[in-house]
Automatic annotation (TrEMBL):
Keyword DNA-binding annotated: yes
Protein name stated in the entry: Winged helix DNA-binding protein
GO molecular function: DNA binding; DNA-binding transcription factor activity
Keyword Methyltransferase: no
Every HTH marR-type domain range: 16-149
Keywords (A to Z) from UniProt: DNA-binding
SUPFAM superfamilies: Winged helix' DNA-binding domain
Source species taxonomy: Bacteria, Pseudomonadati, Pseudomonadota, Betaproteobacteria, Burkholderiales
Stored PANTHER family: HTH-TYPE TRANSCRIPTIONAL REPRESSOR YETL, TRANSCRIPTIONAL REGULATOR, MARR FAMILY
GO biological process, one term: response to stress
Domain of life: Bacteria
Amino acid sequence: MDIQPETPWDGTPDISARIVTAIARIGTVLRAGMWEVSTAEGLNPAQAEILQLLQHRTRGVRLTWLARQLSISAASTSDSVAALVSKGLVRKARADDDGRATALHLTPAGEGVAARLGHALSFADTAAGALPQAQQVQLLTGLFKLIAQLQKTERFPELRACLSCRHFEPNKYPGQPVPHHCGLVDAPLPISFLRIDCAEHEPTDPASQRRNWESFA
Ligand code: SF4
């Protein structure tokens, strides 16, 4: 029988498994940090997340979009939104692009709570900021690539990221250190400036989105 010699590292999980574990652990720590502040504000985690998703979205968002971002049902999202409306933190208005549809907006009080929630994760921001700049760019690039892979599983909610934006012009300057371009501000767009959640984002067509994410993956 062909017996393989054992090494001290035989039981080590694959790198991919350890990446997932590390991300999950970071997610747990971030959730706990957010939980502390949202509890002090009298909010449950879903309500806190909704306030953050509505922040800087001056045109408002639809309930179905919120449900997709939260990966929960439209009915549960609707309950959370109703609670936020009754607390005076969210208001409903007619959607700009469809008079029959409803868009959700933060009230001024909701803006204040969302800003305070934003500070809940400043400890993590400080930790990421302590890494050398080149490592931060490397990490951001790796996370974009992982998101690109996850997009293929259709389990990842759509993002207001450069790679799905109609203003994003990939590889406009091939072979250059900064190959991409943002048509909105009409300037080259370095990887270190790629947005994950841009207030000016306008979705491009699904084929271009797929092409952009795939070229990045
Ligand atoms: S910076 Fe904003 S507007 Fe420009 S490409 Fe990225 S998402 Fe679009």
